[in-house]
Amino acid sequence: MYDVSYRHALKMCNRYRHGNITAYKNLSEFLKSDIEAVLVLIPHAFHQEVVRKCAEAGKHVLCEKPMAVTLEECDSMIEATREAGVKFMIAENHRFLPAHRYIHDVIKEGLIGDVLLVRAYGGVNEIAGITQPGSWKGDIMKAGGGCFMDMAAHKFATLEWILEDRVHSVTAMLSKQATGLPEKGEDNVLAIVTFSKGAFCELVVSFTQQTVPFNSLEIHGTQGTIFENHMWDRPVRFFSFSRAMGENRKKWFEPELEHGPFPHYYTISVKHEDGHFARCILEDKEPEFSPEEARSAIECILTGYLSAIKGREITSEELVDFAKQNCSASIIKELGEHIVTRPGLPEEKRVKPLGLDIERAARVMEKHGLDLVIATSPVNVYYLTGLPVLPSAPNPILFALKNMYHNIAILRWDGHVCLLHWELFRSTEKFCWAN
192 and 171 in contact (C-beta within 8 Å)? Predict the structure, then answer.
């Protein structure tokens, strides 16, 4: 196991007790080990770099979704793994959920006729992550956007496969309902999607759902309707006029499938996903969920983001033309200015640090073998953060901090800055984390 935090890697090794696991302090040493395949679970913006290094080391790669945050990065990953001759698959567990496989087969067999209308929903509660300034979750640059990048990757990859069709256009409305942090992306999205064969889709994803996670799907065709909900013990119900249904024709039918409400459907889908990838390695065959299909999901997401920026429907062809002329990374850079913030949501302003050069600081820390720089004087805290630290200075976020000024700033080797208010006069034995 390798993690940027060696302490975290050791912790994870101790948690999984299915044999001896070695923790590595750097990626290059990790990739020199005798492992055959790597599972990449890191923030989205770093997928491309790590996947390329794994491929160059001759390791098969299973990478968490979304594939990457730009089309250029997707292409780079495909090129690197093809040149290295290694197996490469994005860990899209929704493609391997038995309920979704059943729906795919029902539609393929024509049991609900031609698909006319789809409604797809996915919701989780990520408020803790998206409202935390230091968290990568929902950070536009580290995660490639908010919930649309994070969750619509599931939806687009699954729907294009279930319908055996490609997305033609996307019209997306993005909103921030839970946080005013400027670096964070959307936490709720409503998108209208059209498919090449003519079906329409209402696609909704949310980071602010106040229940356990679940997904739901409605598919209406010329000969019937399918309902799916991951919270049902029997997740699929469908009604069909097709004579192929026999005695179940014109009745609601609930097939028996391998399934269980949250969190069990995750375990089931990941089991099938990982098992499939392992068999592809052992039997030397290509994964049924191809990198090109995973790339298509990213193309759909970026089409939606470009739609929000332009304020109109965007076709996949327009997205491809835009990417050729401007590089799709420019969409992510511009995205934050086009996310609607809920009226009345407190604005959390940031001041750009005046003296800190993160790249220079990283070089100095690396030179001296430092993992952290801890600043405790008001001047140095201001130097690292740009935030006023004295009562006489105006501070726009005081109300959010309950009038507590920061008196400690910690700069990590990778550029992350953490702010602390240490209540110095309370028991150090109880609250101190340092020996």
Answer: yes
